Amino acid sequence: MATFEIREPMLMDAEWITQACQDIEIQRWTLVPRPYKRDHALGFIDNTINEAHRWVIEQQENNEAVGVVSIHTINSDTGDADTGYWIAPWGRRRGAATHALLLVEQFALTIPSINSLSAHIAETNAASRATASRAGFVNMGSTPEPCPDGENLVPALTYVKHLTR
To answer: Which DSSP symbol is given to 109?
Structure first.
């Protein structure tokens, strides 16, 4: 079974991130710009998009980059860290996203102001919902903000993992 690590994005990641974001599934379920260009990848790498934290997911055995995981925002009132992730077509069905969420949890445990991790997932995104569940997130029900499913916005569910220190 493959093992994964997360690391800071680097300039060398721009090409594969750009390639991955052409994938119809990534475009279907995320808010990546369409069309996705190299400049967008550079914005992610340089963090001009203002993510609280962002990482590349890499398979340890061969150093292959397979996706990204982020903490988009941290709510200073509740201590909730809103997460997001996507996996490139060549990295799917190996547990990369689940493993990355567990690593983000370990990171979050080092920040006293973070009390929980959350993921807002389209009701129709069965794969991402299963990933969150495998990482120990619990479905807390509907959220008022919809999520993308292709060109449509659909009802979303909030998955939460409370941190135990």
So the answer is: T
